[in-house]
Amino acid sequence: MKKLVISLLFVMQVFCAWAQDTATVQGKVVDSKSQKPLENVVATLQSTTQTALTNAEGVFIFENAPAGSEVIVVSSAGYVSQTFSLEIVAGQPLDLGVVSLDEDITSEQQLSLITITDNDLGDDNSGSENTAGLLQASRDTYQQAAAFNWGQARFRIRGLDNEYGTTMINGVIMNKLYDGRPQWSNWGGLNDATRNQEFTMGSAPSDYTFGSILGTQEINTRASIFRPGARISFSGTNTNYNWRAMATYASGMNANGWAYVVSGSRRWAVEGNFEGTDYSANSLFMSIEKKINDAHSINFTGIYAQNSRGKNSPNTKEVNDIAGEKYNSYWGWQDGKKRNSRDKDVEEPILMLSHFWEINEKNNLNTNVAYQFGKIGNSRLDYQNAPNPDPTYYRNLPSFFTSTYDDAGNYVGDQEPYVTNAANANFLNNRQIDWNALYTANKNTANGRSAYVLYEDRTDDNTLTANSILHSQLSDNITLNAGATYKHVKSHNFQNLLDLLGGKFFEDFDNFYTGDFSQSDLNHPNRTVGVGDTYGYNYNLFANTINAFTQFKFSYKKIDFYLGQEFSRSQYQREGLYRNGLYANNSYGKSAKANFENYGFKGGLTYKIDGRNMLVFNGVRMTKAPTLRNTFPNARLNNNIVDGLGSETLSSVDASYVIRTPKLKARLTGFYTTIQNSTETSFFFGEGIFDGSDSADSNAFVAETVTGIDKRMMGGELGIEYQVTSTIKVMGSASIGQYTYTNNPHVSINNDALAALSTNGDGTEVSLNPNTTVDFGPAYLKNYKLPGTPQQAFSIGAEYRDPKFWWVGANANYLANNYMDISALLRTSNFFDNPAAPGTTFDDATTARARQLLKQEKFDSFTLINLSGGKSWRIGQNTVGIFANVNNVFDVTYKTGGFEQARNANFQQLNQDVSSGTPSFGPKYFYGYGRTYFVNLYINF
Fold first, then answer.
1. CA atoms within 13 Å, Cβ hemisphere of 649
2. Is 756 helix (H, G, I), strand (E, B) or coil?
3. 312 close to 924: Cβ distance less than 8 angstroms
4. 501 with 452: CB under 8 angstroms?
5. What is the DSSP letter of 110?
6. Three-state DSSP class for 388?
7. H/E element holding 141?
8. What is the pTM of this model?
9. pLDDT tens, residue by residue, 668-721
10. SS3 of 429, please?
């Protein structure tokens, strides 16, 4: 360590020798309409990391601006940035005079952002996740395109899921330990209150955290930084919700050292863009700051964002061809209203206390304690000894009859009575859930037992976080950022019965098994449950994590560089609250503890060719603990931990050329990223998976775990904008990537049925297989494409901004190379094994046909045209404005994702299903919105 410090100090002295003469530069910033001074506006010397904030009079001052050609950028949230080219002469003060900032009406675009990010994030299938870090939209042209233009197609920046980005509120990381992703709904509808944000791209340095490989987003809710005033707005849209009302008031810091901000909104829809998708959300925000003295300030932030929305189903091509792309199988009519069986309800308040300590002019410390609690519920129908109520259940579809083969493998789906049955398939006339039939079935059961109920998969999280972040100016050229965080999570997971649907009680057992094996809790067997009761599964997950980081930034005339390092430790444990009948000895009580220790190192360099041109390099090597979801592969039923589970290894490098002049701004970036030793889990019913002379023996509900996954993301990014005239600007963005699997990871299947085998002749049930995990060996995924995002995206647009405060813009976007999410199980050697004759393969299985069946589907490319515009008026001391956009003007239909069903798990079954022409278990698809609009009317006063 001593040698390192001495070396760094020596390097610092060398760079200091390059220092040039300096001069003082200052200016005064005002609002262009009111001509009032603007406080806390950021002025940045482009060739250095020097920044200056305007004071209450709107004045900023650089005491030691380097002599020579320089570019200064003056920017503030809600205003159009101003860029000035200067020639600074050593020893001669330079006064820029009055700098007028125009209101940035285009920032109203951020108000519609929640309609994108509030999609089916983290729902039942990975294909429905809208990742890509869509909230990471700064004034960078490329990031703007990625968020607002490509986001509607679920574009992922650099092909990365948002678990590889870091989202913070006041320096507290909000990513969930369960799956690594932030829950956007926790602050949804509070756009005004969360507009003060700082961003980084990739592994670039952040002042608040070490970060990861996608970037960081810091939301600052300190009350004193909000511009004083009030704002109300009302919006209409046809996306997830239809209407939104929002109001915000910020007091500013008064003479007694108090400042506060309050904000609230409501969003609602009887039906959103897709059929049967109701929406209701209420959000409240409060931030109160007390300035104790010049050194100490305390801030309390409270966020309550309740959200309830109906989900929309992914569907096969067969279903879409019959019912259309907006068809949603999750709803049905009840008492003249549409009722969705699958609602997602989020209600997780956040309470945060922050202490700001300005130790001296060069050192400050921010300490936060945050507590988050509440619930997330995902509802669905449950049933016992009754037909599946899903209208798209495969037996209800025409393909159930047209894809039929006899026992000899001969196709008979084109014969009578199959054709007649297909023509009369139930789905053709009954496409929605029949709620009345469910109520009737429950009334006709013995003793009032419900055959159908509505329940929710419920998660009640309690999260306590404490951290401190130090910012220290060690010298004129060296800055230190350091921090430490502790987080404790208790996550209670259970099935919660919501509605008996006219019945009197429901029996708590698994009707796929018998005897003790069917019992959810052997400690309380043969239970009956009612509304509000827990049943099915019931367990806690515990997590304790600590991490610490340091980051040194060095800034000189021609070169800036930084070095960062991080250490973290994670400990996970499961506690079963039920003694499950299938896992009587491995479900109740606490599991073993899973411990992971991880590290990270990163660095980067900026070479300033001159005040306008620079080269930027970043690199990171780090490890990342697996998520709770991927640590316990079958957490609902047992305490098992994935065998041999380890941390991911992340590596990433990028290089950029950046040019910024008053008229031209551009960034060209190349990147190369690898993720090694990743783990993924999924759940499904598969046929033909296991050996057995009886076909039923080879079928099972299974939990699939794929370990040791390696991925590679490489490509380039371009963002460019040019101010043609004082009123016309043109923009262009491009992303060209190649995102692939680079190895053949390992597949294992957990089959609960193996625990329910019995051997005793007297009928006593004895488990033969306490180990229910079956090793399927490698899945041959190498060179398959990573799913979930277009790997190519291009955008070109233009904007006209009139001096009379109105503007209009348009852009065209081309997106291509989006691929299906493939099944790992289908690509194991088991695919060719004949379960009816163990040790043999199917006679008709050929390599050529297998390649056809297992070829990854590539979705069609498409072009989206978007229009936007706005106008504002100054009425006395108030501003009234309107913003509107229309996305996908020509109502293009396009797929945003999809996933293979693994039900047909061997060659024979998949080949027969596909060969029929209308497969019963074809891939399921997600579609983007058609033509959508967003209109927002607001008043600032």
1. 5
2. helix
3. no
4. yes
5. G
6. coil
7. helix 141-144
8. 0.89
9. 999 999 999 999 998 887 776 776 544 445 667 788 999 999 999 999 999 999
10. helix
